[in-house]
Inverse folding.
């Protein structure tokens, strides 16, 4: 509740800051201040359950510690994102205040999809989350590819939203007492009503689109590649895991009791996502595009949470959100500094920028899932959840085989950085400041701390 | 002090770990070398000391348990048993030997090289000491990562592809094992910690031994674990990464890989495979033994026709490991005792062989056997040392390997005479390729390549001298090592009956 309202308010503050403050650097600090305030406000609510606003929402929002923990993770990751890449936002165009304002509106959507209790609010949350992203994707307006990406994203997004609304309508129609509440849907004991089943599949498709699960992923590489890199970083991490969180919450609360009826669909989507994400990533030459496919591949692993739907899956999802977001934001922050986005562009980075290379290695090892990093713990939880679920055991084997394939493309960057010589000096887009390096090192340490001591995130569940 | 603040396994892990991290921050090459050698000697001292405190009444010196990931039923639990002791001893002996042997070679970025080597040692110690499955898995992977960087950075021409092949092989294997670990974990009983915390399942070794698994579950879980271990050993047909990797790695790392790291696979089978899945072990023992024995003959035959010196040693290593794996699955006291002894001996002997190979290669720049010749007249000391080590490698009486192989063959014979006969072919073939190699490299005419070879320096004399001493001492009097592992062997064999 605190997070929803504060991020909306701060979005408006940021919007006006663009009008009244002429300096380009100020909005960044204002944004960092805002995110810290929202984080604290959310932390107070998480700790004591007290909200600053006593609105009667008629049970339409549910703020349990699980949901609020997720918001806290999303906010913390956004803070890391601002610290690492905030100054690069300034370089996208003249409207710095607006970019930050849009990001805060996205966060409002994130908080909504993390706490929704009715299909209506899910829809509103998804829309609030998506529309600013269409704008951010196209924010580099003189770049043709950015425009193309924005248009593509918008059209495809609108289409999937349409499907989602249709699905909601079917479910609403199929529920006798006409309610939007997700735990009120009439599932019956045997087979589902046709209307409900159709509605559910439509929701499944729409949500799969939002989290770029195959075969609904086709927009992802182009949009991620075309958008300004600094916004790709945000889109492919915080927004994506928020989509997952909504996906899992929706299917757990609304359709959890009939899981056997739809689990097979998830299995198919998971295998397809893992296959397409990992195999295609292997062939990419551009690191940015490779990371786009890697985000699809990681989505495949996160789908295991939806497949398993048990306690481990929920904890694992929190951990995965943090681990994946931190590592990906980190690697994108390094990528933004590079002039040449190809893997060859990373050759010899270890010699010229040892700190960047070392931290990037930690991020890549975490994405691969090497022990002592957060990435391992999150993958471990996902696998544990899937094994505990007991059905379709082969899916777990498939998942780890693809995880082994993922080592191939992540390690290509490590190989380029450490074992190959640069043909010429690496050109950086901006000066690499000491504070940037320190932040990178802190993020890398955080990833290792989470890898050794994941209670840090999961522990909240036990209090 | 000991037992209250520190225990042996902890010291053996932390010492190389701390020294390794320290190495990264030292700029001067000679200082790094000194730190590395001192740290590894310190580890050796701890390891030797731990041998004197092996009786059960010193349990507090040898076992420690910290809370770590408690809500999962895991803990940071390290301890030493017979198997762990002999392998930590091997690791502790191997590293100073390697460091002194390579002290003359200079590496670019020596600080990183020695730092990573020490981290590898810490990981290996962790593998041999962990008593919790998750900790074991952590160390298992962590021993691999520094090796990956070592081989890719300092290896030969084709190092990047070769090392990556090695990495992907082992990584895939260990991920499969991870699934196995998770599955067994979910079938263990509850764990109660000293502070009263109840957890549904447990990662403790004993809980794994008592996991509630029926025969059919064991049968497929067996393979999830076995593939990981088989890749590491390597057992035929999972060996294809090995010759290339040994060939391309810097020799110091090859010594670690072949001397110590392959023992991780055998150790895994001894501690985490056979006792956890006893039914499956009986069910598949013939299959595994046939694979291993096929590997012995196959690798020996390739070794005979091999012209690349490094690959020859690599294939000979596959043959030896194959014999150990086969004997392990014969599962009687004699064969397992032989394996325990041989794990140690093989580590010592193969490191000796690599030292000689490295010297030949460094001085001539040639790995091809057919181009070498006549080194004996140029380097008599080297030749004598090599001949002794090579004879140990083919298990001549009075050398250390004889004791081990004798026990293994008796055990194998008791299990199945045919297997013993076929595995015995390996010994004959080993004699063929080893003697052939000695003859071609060290005898014959001196040619232009070998005319400039000098005899070995003090550090190499010292190291080879120590290795030869170990070979003879263990060859004549293997009793202490047998005593050391006796209870572990009895436990293991007892579990199977």
């Amino acid at each position: 509740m605190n997070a929803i309202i504060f991020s909306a308010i701060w979005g408006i503050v940021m919007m006006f800051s663009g009008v009244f403050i002429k300096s380009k650097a100020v909005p960044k600090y204002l944004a960092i201040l805002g995110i810290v305030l929202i984080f604290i406000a959310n932390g107070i609510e998480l700790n004591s359950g007290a909200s600053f606003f006593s609105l009667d929402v008629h049970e339409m929002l549910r703020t349990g510690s699980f949901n609020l923990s997720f918001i806290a993770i999303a906010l913390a990751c956004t803070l890391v994102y601002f610290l690492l890449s905030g100054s690069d936002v300034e370089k996208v165009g003249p409207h710095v205040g607006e970019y930050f304002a849009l990001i805060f509106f996205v966060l409002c959507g994130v908080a909504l999809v993390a706490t929704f209790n009715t299909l209506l609010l899910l829809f509103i949350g998804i829309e609030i989350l998506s529309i600013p992203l269409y704008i951010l994707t196209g924010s580099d307006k003189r770049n043709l590819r950015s425009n193309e990406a924005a248009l593509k994203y918008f059209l495809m997004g609108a289409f999937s939203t349409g499907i989602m609304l249709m699905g909601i309508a079917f479910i609403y129609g199929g529920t006798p007492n006409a309610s939007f509440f997700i735990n009120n849907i009439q599932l019956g004991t045997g087979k589902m009503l046709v209307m409900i089943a159709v509605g559910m599949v439509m929701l499944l498709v729409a949500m799969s689109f939002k989290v770029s699960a195959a075969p609904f992923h086709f927009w992802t590489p182009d949009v991620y590649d075309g958008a300004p890199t600094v916004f790709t970083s945000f889109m492919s991490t915080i927004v994506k895991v928020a989509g997952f969180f909504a996906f899992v919450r929706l299917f757990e609360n609304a359709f959890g009791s009939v899981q056997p009826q739809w689990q097979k669909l998830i299995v198919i989507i998971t295998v397809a996502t893992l296959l397409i994400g990992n195999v295609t990533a292997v062939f990419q030459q551009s690191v940015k595009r490779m990371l786009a496919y890697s985000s699809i591949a990681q989505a495949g692993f996160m789908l295991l949470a939806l497949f398993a739907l048990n306690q481990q899956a929920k904890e694992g999802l929190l951990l995965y959100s943090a681990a994946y977001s931190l590592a990906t934001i980190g690697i994108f922050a390094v990528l933004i500094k590079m002039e040449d986005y190809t893997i060859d562009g990373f050759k010899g980075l270890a010699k010229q920028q040892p700190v960047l290379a070392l931290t990037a290695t930690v991020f890549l090892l975490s994405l691969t899932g090497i022990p002592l990093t957060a990435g391992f713990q999150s993958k471990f939880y996902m696998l544990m959840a899937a094994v505990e679920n007991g059905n379709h055991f082969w899916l777990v084997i498939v998942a780890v085989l693809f995880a082994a394939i993922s080592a191939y493309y992540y390690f290509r960057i490590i190989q380029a950085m450490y074992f190959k010589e640069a043909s010429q000096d690496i050109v950086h887009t901006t000066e690499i400041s000491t504070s940037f390096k320190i932040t990178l090192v802190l993020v890398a340490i955080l990833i290792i701390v989470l890898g050794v001591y994941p209670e840090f995130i999961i522990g909240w569940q036990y209090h | 002090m000991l037992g209250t603040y520190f225990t042996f396994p902890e010291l053996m892990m932390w010492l190389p770990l701390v020294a390794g991290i320290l190495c990264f921050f030292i700029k001067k090459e000679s200082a790094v070398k000194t730190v590395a050698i001192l740290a590894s000697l310190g580890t050796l001292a701890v390891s030797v000391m731990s041998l004197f405190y092996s009786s059960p009444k010193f349990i507090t010196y040898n076992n420690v348990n910290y809370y770590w990931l408690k809500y999962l039923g895991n803990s940071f639990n390290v301890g030493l048993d017979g198997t762990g002791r002999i392998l930590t001893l091997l690791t502790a002996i191997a590293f100073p030997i390697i460091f002194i042997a390579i002290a003359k070679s200079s590496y670019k970025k020596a600080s990183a090289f020695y730092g990573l080597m020490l981290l590898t040692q810490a990981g290996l110690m962790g593998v041999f000491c962990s008593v919790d499955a998750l900790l074991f898995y952590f160390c298992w992977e962590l021993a691999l990562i520094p090796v990956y960087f070592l081989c890719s950075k300092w290896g030969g021409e084709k190092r990047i592809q070769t090392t990556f092949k090695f990495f992907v092989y082992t990584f895939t294997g260990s991920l499969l094992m991870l699934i196995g670990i998770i599955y067994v974990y979910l079938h263990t009983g509850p764990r109660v910690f000293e502070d009263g915390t109840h957890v549904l399942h447990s990662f403790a070794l004993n809980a794994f031994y008592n996991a509630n698994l029926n025969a059919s579950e064991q049968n497929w879980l067996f393979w999830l674990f076995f593939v990981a271990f088989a890749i590491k050993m390597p057992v035929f047909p999972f060996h294809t990464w090995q010759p290339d990797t040994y060939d391309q790695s810097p020799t110091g790392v090859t010594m670690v890989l072949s001397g110590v790291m392959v023992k991780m696979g055998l150790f895994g089978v001894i501690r985490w495979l056979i006792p956890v899945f006893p039914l499956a072990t009986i069910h598949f023992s013939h299959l595994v033994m046939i694979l291993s024995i096929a590997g012995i003959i196959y690798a020996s035959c390739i070794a005979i026709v091999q012209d690349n010196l490094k690959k020859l040693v690599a294939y000979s290593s596959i043959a030896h490991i194959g014999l150990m794996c086969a004997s392990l699955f014969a599962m009687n006291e004699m064969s397992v005792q032989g394996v325990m002894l041989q794990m140690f001996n093989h580590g010592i002997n193969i490191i000796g062989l690599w030292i000689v190979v490295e010297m030949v290669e460094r001085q001539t720049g040639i790995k091809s056997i057919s181009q070498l010749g006549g080194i004996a007249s140029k380097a008599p000391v080297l030749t004598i040392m090599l001949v002794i080590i090579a004879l140990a490698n083919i298990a001549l009486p009075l050398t250390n390997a004889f004791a081990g192989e004798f026990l293994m063959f008796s055990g194998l014979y008791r299990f199945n005479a045919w297997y013993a006969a076929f595995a015995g072919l390996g010994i004959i073939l080993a004699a063929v390729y080893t003697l052939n190699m000695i003859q071609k490299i060290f005898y014959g005419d001196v040619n232009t390549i070998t005319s400039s070879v000098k005899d070995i320096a003090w550090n190499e004399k010292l190291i080879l001298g120590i290795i030869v001493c170990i070979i003879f001492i263990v060859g004549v009097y293997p009793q202490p090592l047998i005593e050391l592992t006796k209870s572990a062997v009895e436990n293991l064999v007892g579990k199977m009956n």
